[in-house]
Amino acid sequence: MAKLYALLVGINAYHPETNVNHLKGCVNDVKAMSGFLREHFQHLSPAIEQVLNEEATRENLLRTFESHLGKAGPEDIALFYYSGHGSYENTSPEFETYDSKNQNETLVCYDSRLRGHQDLADKEMAVLLERLDPVAQKVLILDSCHSGSITRGDRDELSRQ
Fold this sequence. Notes:
By secondary structure, the chain is α/β, with parallel strands linked by helices. The chain is 27% helix and 24% strand. It is built from four helices and seven strands. It has helices at 26-40, 58-69, 122-131, 155-160; strands spanning 4-10, 47-52, 77-83, 86-90, 103-107, 120-121, 137-143. The strands form two sheets. It has a four-stranded parallel sheet, with helices on both faces. The chain is globular and about 45 Å long. The N and C termini lie far apart (39 Å).
């Protein structure tokens, strides 16, 4: 029987030392999405993980993505929902061939802008998605700036290079 695994991330308040502007409503969006999934997808026995504010460190998001959404099997749905800041950065030289803008689209984690920390880049998101069961349905809902190309691209074109 199919099951829904959902990872819902909402960040209103970023680490105080990052100088990232706080947002309003991201945590409420996560709670509303959780309620929506429970009400409308009850038949899929939703397993929902919420990661909010200071819990939404880069390390915790990576770990929770793999440990929770990684449970989704061939019949299941793996849903990732992010509400928070998005940004962009220059891409690594290794990816310049594949990206005409030479730019990564990123999700800003709670601790992204601390010294020695970084955002979660679109190329990393592609790797995370690739690690999930290849037959499981994957759904990403990104409520952030600069998220337009997080999953855009031609996977076949990348594999031919």
